[in-house]
C-alpha cells in the first residue's frame, strides 16, 4: 500500500509564513496513527536567500576564525600532543595515544603539504615554532569550524525552520567563544565537531526524502561516512552513532505504527539502515587504523606500551631475535609478565627499607642485564652436561645472574600492597649459600593459554605461558600495576599471592640461552608477525587502559555538572602579558541550557497530561517543534550524560558536542515563538522579533568583550577584573598590563630573580622612550617567576612511571635522563599541560630514566 500523501501547507497569518508541515493522522481500529509520508513542502530546494545568508556566515566565519592565527607563535595547550603526533607520522615513528588516528593523520597531511620536516618537536607549551607550517596547520581546524556553522544552518533548514531564524541561530554558534577558541589551534575537537555536524545534517535531510530513492540512499551513505569519520577522530563519535541509532529506532517505531506502510518495507528499512549506518563506520574505522599502522613503521617511544610481539614488527626495535626455544636447567632467561606492561622480572643491588630488608625484586620495562635469571634444580644437585628440559610441574630455583641471589618468598608483608593474601618476594642469599626451601618454585603451564601442544608439556621460550607456585606457601608469583615509591625507583611491585586475578600471575620466557644444549639441537624461534586484527585489538586494549587510568586530579579539570552553567574554563596559554583561555559565550551557553531544560520540563508536563487523557497537540507548529526538538534534546543527552559515568579526568571542551545540539534547540524555540506565538498579533510579533535580535546582539557583545582571551590580544588588568562574575572563571588578570599603551612600549625584560627591569639600549636614547620606561617601572608588576614542576603520573600505567636505578647499582650502566617538559603552572595564570602520554625512550645499551608525566585524555 502506498503512503497517503501529506497535504502541503503554506499560508500566511499576520504576515508570517509557515515553514512547517501539517501532521496527517489515519483512522485505526483502536486509535489514530501518524502517517509518515514525506510532504511536498519537506522536499526543499534552497533559495537565493539561503545562499546569500550562507555566504554571509562563511565570510564572517572565516574572518573570525582565521584572523591572527599566527598569534601566539608558540605551542598552545594540547598542540604539544597533536602537533607532536603529526610530526611522528611524518617521521614514521610509532606512538601511543588514547584517540583514534584520523584527525591526527589529517594534521600530518596538512603539515606535509606545508613542507614540515619534523625537526620541531612540539615539546613544551610556549616553545616558539621553527621551520613549522603551524599557521597552515591551524587553518585546517579553523575551516572545519566555519563548516560547522554552515552545517548548523542547513540542519535547521531541513528541520523546517525559516531562513532568517536559521541565520540567527547559526550566528550564535558563529560568535560562540569556546568554539572559536577550539577551532584556532591544532586540536582534535574542531574536526570532530565538523564530522558530528555533517552526520546530523545528512540524517536530518534523509527524513525529508522519499525512502529508497537515489537521494535517500545517498544521504544514508553520507551519514554513515560522517559517523565513521567522527568515530575515527575520537571515541566521542560512539555517542553520535548512539544518537543516530536512537533516531532510527524512533522512526522505525513510527513506521511500525503507520498502517499504510507494508511489513516488507519496514524490514527493508531495518536491514538497509543497519547495514549502512553500522557497516560503513566500522569499515572506515578499521581502514584508518590500517593506514595508521602502515605509516608508523619505526620503533618509537610509544613502543614501551606495547607487547614484544607488536614491537618486533617495528623497524629498529631491540626485541630479542633468533631465540632458542628449548628451556631447561642451566638456561639463562628473562621472564616477562603477561597481563601488565610492567615488563621483566628484575632485581638490583638495592634493598627493601622494611620487612625482610632483603634485595628488591620488581618489574622493569626495559631490556637490562639485571633481568637475567639462571634456572637451577630445586635440590641444589649439580646437573651434568646432559640437557634437562623444563617440564610442567618441575620444581626449580631462579638465581639472579648479577647478584647471585635467588628468587625468594616468605611470610612477610608485601612492600606496598596491604592485602593479607600478598607476601613479599625478594632476592636472597650470599656467597657460598646454596639456598633454602623458600627459594623453591614449581612450574605450572597454563594449558588454555598455550597453543602449541608440545609447549603444553615442555616449557618453550615465547610459546609457553606458565605460573610459578611457591613450594612452601602455595602462593603464586604475582604482579599488578602497583608501583613502588622512590626507594624502588617507581618500578612495579612483585609479590606472591594466594588470591587476585589469575592472569596477573601469568609469565613467559623471552630471552633464553643454554650452553649445555648442543648447537645443532637448537630450535630457533622469533615472535610471530601480528596480523592487522591483532594489532588493532592490542592497540585498543592499551587505549582503553590508558584512558581509564587518567584519574589523577588535574588543575583545569571540571565536573560535568558544571558544564551547562559555564562555571569553569581552561587555561590554554599564558605568555608575554597575554593569555588564551577556553571560555564559552555565556549568553549562548546559558540559552542552550535553558532551551534543553525547558523542553524536558515541557515534555514531562505534556506526557503527564496525555496520561490523564488529554489529547496530543496536533497544531502543525507545535507538532513540528515537538518532533524536531526531541531529536536535538536526545542528541544533547547522549553527548552529555555518558560523561557522568566516567571516572577519568574531564574538561570543559568535552561538552562542546552537546552544546551544538543545545544551540540547535534554541533555533527550534525561535521558530516556535515566530511561527506560533508571533502569529497571534503584530504586537507580539514585534516583541518576539526584538527579543530574538536582542539576544543575538548580547551574544556578539559577549564575544567582543572576551575576545582577548580567544586571540591572545592586548587587554588591561582592570578590564579583566571586571569581566569575572564567577570565581571559576580563573584566568589571571595579573598577566595583563595596566593600560593598553604599555603593549606598544619597547620590550621589557623582567628578571625573575632580581626583578630588575631593563630595555634595549636604543630605547634609552630618547627622552620619550625614557619617559615611557619610567611609566613602565612605576606601573608594571613583575610577572610571577615560572616554577618548574614535575607532573604526577597515573598509577595505572607502568611505562611512564618507571624510574631508572641509580648508576651505582651493580652492573647497571649510567642511565640517560629524559627530560619531561614541564610548563605546568597554577591557577594564577600559569599554564599546565593536559593529559600527556609520556612514553619512555630507550637508547641502545643503556638503562633509561623516565620522570613522571601527565597522561593524555580521551574522549
From TrEMBL:
Protein name, entry field: Dolichyl-phosphate-mannose--protein mannosyltransferase
Annotated region (Disordered), positions in chain: 760-840
Membrane topology value: Multi-pass membrane protein
Kinase is among the record's keywords: no
A single cellular component GO annotation: endoplasmic reticulum membrane
Reaction(s) the record says it catalyses: a di-trans,poly-cis-dolichyl beta-D-mannosyl phosphate + L-seryl-[protein] = 3-O-(alpha-D-mannosyl)-L-seryl-[protein] + a di-trans,poly-cis-dolichyl phosphate + H(+); a di-trans,poly-cis-dolichyl beta-D-mannosyl phosphate + L-threonyl-[protein] = 3-O-(alpha-D-mannosyl)-L-threonyl-[protein] + a di-trans,poly-cis-dolichyl phosphate + H(+)
SMART domains from the UniProt entry: MIR (SM00472)
Family the entry assigns: Belongs to the glycosyltransferase 39 family.
Subcellular location as annotated: Endoplasmic reticulum membrane
CDD domains: beta-trefoil_MIR_PMT1-like
Annotated organism of origin: Candida oxycetoniae
EC number, UniProt record: 2.4.1.109
Sequence ranges assigned to domain MIR in this UniProt record: 324-378, 387-446, 457-512
Function: Transfers mannose from Dol-P-mannose to Ser or Thr residues on proteins.
GO MF term set: dolichyl-phosphate-mannose-protein mannosyltransferase activity
Superkingdom of origin: Eukaryota
Keywords noted in UniProt: Endoplasmic reticulum, Glycoprotein, Glycosyltransferase, Membrane, Repeat, Transferase, Transmembrane, Transmembrane helix
Pathway: Protein modification; protein glycosylation
Residue intervals passing through the bilayer: 51-71, 105-122, 134-155, 185-203, 215-231, 238-256, 276-296, 580-605, 625-646, 658-677, 683-704
Enzyme class per UniProt: transferase
Bias type Basic and acidic residues, positions: 765-792, 802-837
InterPro entries: ArnT-like_N, MIR_dom_sf, MIR_motif, PMT-like, PMT_4TMC
Amino acid at each position: 500500500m502506498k503512503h497517503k500523501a501529506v497535504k502541503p501547507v503554506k499560508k500566511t497569518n499576520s504576515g508570517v509564513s509557515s515553514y512547517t508541515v501539517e501532521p496527517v493522522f489515519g483512522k485505526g481500529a483502536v486509535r489514530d496513527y501518524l502517517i509518515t509520508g514525506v510532504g511536498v513542502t519537506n522536499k526543499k530546494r534552497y533559495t537565493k536567500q539561503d545562499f546569500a545568508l550562507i555566504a554571509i556566515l562563511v565570510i564572517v566565519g572565516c574572518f573570525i576564525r582565521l584572523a591572527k592565527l599566527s598569534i601566539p607563535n608558540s605551542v598552545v595547550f594540547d598542540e604539544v600532543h597533536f602537533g607532536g603526533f603529526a610530526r611522528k607520522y611524518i617521521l614514521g615513528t610509532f606512538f601511543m595515544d588514547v584517540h583514534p588516528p584520523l584527525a591526527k593523520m589529517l594534521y600530518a597531511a596538512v603539515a606535509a603539504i606545508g613542507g614540515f620536516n619534523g625537526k620541531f618537536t612540539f615539546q613544551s607549551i610556549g616553545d616558539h615554532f621553527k621551520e613549522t607550517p603551524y599557521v597552515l596547520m591551524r587553518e585546517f581546524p579553523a575551516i572545519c569550524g566555519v563548516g560547522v556553522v554552515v552545517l548548523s544552518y542547513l540542519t535547521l533548514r531541513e528541520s523546517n525552520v525559516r531562513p532568517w531564524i536559521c541565520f540567527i541561530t547559526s550566528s550564535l554558534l558563529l560568535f560562540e567563544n569556546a568554539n572559536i577558541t577550539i577551532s584556532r589551534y591544532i586540536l582534535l575537537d574542531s574536526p570532530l565537531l565538523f564530522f558530528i555536524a555533517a552526520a546530523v545534517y545528512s540524517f536530518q535531510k534523509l527524513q525529508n526524502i522519499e525512502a529508497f530513492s537515489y537521494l535517500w540512499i545517498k544521504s544514508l551513505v553520507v551519514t554513515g561516512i560522517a559517523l565513521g569519520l567522527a568515530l575515527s577522530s575520537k571515541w566521542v563519535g560512539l555517542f553520535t552513532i548512539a544518537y543516530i541509532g536512537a533516531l532510527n529506532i524512533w522512526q522505525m517505531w513510527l513506521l511500525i505504527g503507520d498502517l499504510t506502510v507494508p511489513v516488507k518495507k519496514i524490514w527493508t528499512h531495518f536491514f538497509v539502515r543497519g547495514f549502512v549506518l553500522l557497516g560503513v563506520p566500522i569499515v572506515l574505522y578499521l581502514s584508518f587504523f590500517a593506514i595508521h599502522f602502515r605509516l608508523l613503521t619505526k620503533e618509537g617511544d610509544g613502543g614501551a606500551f606495547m607487547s614484544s610481539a607488536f614491537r618486533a614488527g617495528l623497524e629498529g626495535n631491540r626485541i630479542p631475535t633468533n631465540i632458542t626455544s628449548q628451556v631447561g636447567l642451566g638456561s639463562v632467561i628473562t621472564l616477562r609478565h603477561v597481563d601488565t606492561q610492567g615488563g621483566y622480572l628484575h632485581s638490583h643491588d638495592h634493598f627493601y627499607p622494611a620487612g625482610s630488608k632483603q634485595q628488591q625484586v620488581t618489574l622493569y620495562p626495559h631490556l637490562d642485564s639485571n633481568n637475567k635469571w639462571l634456572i637451577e634444580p630445586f635440590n641444589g644437585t649439580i646437573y651434568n652436561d646432559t640437557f634437562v628440559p623444563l617440564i610442567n610441574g618441575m620444581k626449580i630455583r631462579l638465581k639472579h645472574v648479577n647478584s647471585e641471589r635467588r628468587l625468594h618468598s616468605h611470610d612477610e608483608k608485601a612492600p606496598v600492597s596491604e592485602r593479607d593474601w600478598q607476601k613479599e618476594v625478594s632476592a636472597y642469599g650470599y656467597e657460598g649459600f646454596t639456598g633454602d626451601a623458600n627459594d623453591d618454585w614449581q612450574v605450572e603451564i597454563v594449558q588454555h593459554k598455550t597453543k602449541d601442544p608440545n609447549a603444553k608439556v615442555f616449557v618453550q621460550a615465547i610459546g609457553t605461558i606458565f605460573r610459578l607456585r611457591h613450594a612452601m606457601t602455595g602462593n603464586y608469583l604475582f604482579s599488578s600495576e602497583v608501583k613502588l615509591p622512590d626507594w624502588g625507583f617507581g618500578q612495579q611491585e612483585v609479590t606472591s599471592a594466594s588470591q587476585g586475578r589469575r592472569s596477573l600471575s601469568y609469565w613467559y620466557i623471552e630471552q633464553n640461552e643454554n650452553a649445555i644444549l648442543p648447537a645443532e639441537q637448537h630450535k630457533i624461534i622469533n615472535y610471530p608477525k601480528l596480523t592487522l586484527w591483532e594489532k588493532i585489538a592490542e592497540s585498543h586494549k592499551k587505549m582503553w587502559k590508558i584512558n581509564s587510568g587518567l584519574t589523577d586530579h588535574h588543575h583545569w579539570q571540571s565536573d560535568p555538572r558544571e558544564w551547562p552553567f559555564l562555571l569553569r574554563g581552561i587555561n590554554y596559554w599564558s605568555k608575554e602579558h597575554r593569555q588564551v583561555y577556553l571560555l564559552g559565550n555565556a549568553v549562548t551557553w546559558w540559552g542552550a541550557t535553558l532551551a534543553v531544560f525547558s523542553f524536558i520540563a515541557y515534555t514531562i508536563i505534556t506526557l503527564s497530561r496525555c496520561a490523564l487523557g488529554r489529547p496530543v497537540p496536533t497544531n502543525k507548529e507545535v507538532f513540528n517543534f515537538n518532533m524536531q526538538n526531541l531529536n536535538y534534546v536526545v542528541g544533547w543527552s547522549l553527548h552529555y550524560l555518558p560523561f557522568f559515568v566516567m571516572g577519568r579526568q574531564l574538561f570543559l571542551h568535552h561538552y562542546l558536542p552537546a552544546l551544538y545540539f543545545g544551540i540547535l534547540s534554541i533555533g527550534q524555540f525561535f521558530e516556535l515563538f515566530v511561527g506560533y506565538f508571533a502569529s497571534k498579533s503584530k504586537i507580539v510579533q514585534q516583541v518576539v522579533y526584538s527579543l530574538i535580535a536582542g539576544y543575538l546582539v548580547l551574544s556578539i557583545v559577549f564575544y567582543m568583550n572576551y575576545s582577548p582571551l580567544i586571540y591572545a590580544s592586548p587587554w588591561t588588568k582592570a578590564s579583566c577584573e571586571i569581566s569575572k562574575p564567577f570565581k571559576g572563571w580563573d584566568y589571571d588578570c595579573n598577566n595583563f598590563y595596566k593600560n593598553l599603551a604599555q603593549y606598544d612600549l619597547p620590550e621589557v625584560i623582567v628578571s625573575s630573580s632580581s626583578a630588575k627591569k631593563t630595555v634595549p639600549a636604543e630605547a634609552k636614547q630618547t627622552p620619550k622612550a625614557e619617559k615611557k620606561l619610567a611609566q613602565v617601572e612605576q606601573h608594571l608588576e613583575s610577572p610571577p617567576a615560572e616554577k618548574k614542576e614535575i607532573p604526577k603520573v597515573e598509577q595505572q600505567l607502568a611505562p611512564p612511571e618507571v624510574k631508572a636505578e641509580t648508576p651505582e647499582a651493580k652492573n647497571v650502566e649510567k642511565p640517560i635522563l629524559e627530560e619531561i617538559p614541564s610548563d605546568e603552572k597554577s591557577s594564577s595564570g600559569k599554564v599546565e599541560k593536559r593529559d600527556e602520554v609520556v612514553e619512555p625512550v630507550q637508547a641502545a645499551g643503556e638503562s633509561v630514566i623516565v620522570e613522571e608525566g601527565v597522561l593524555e585524555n580521551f574522549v
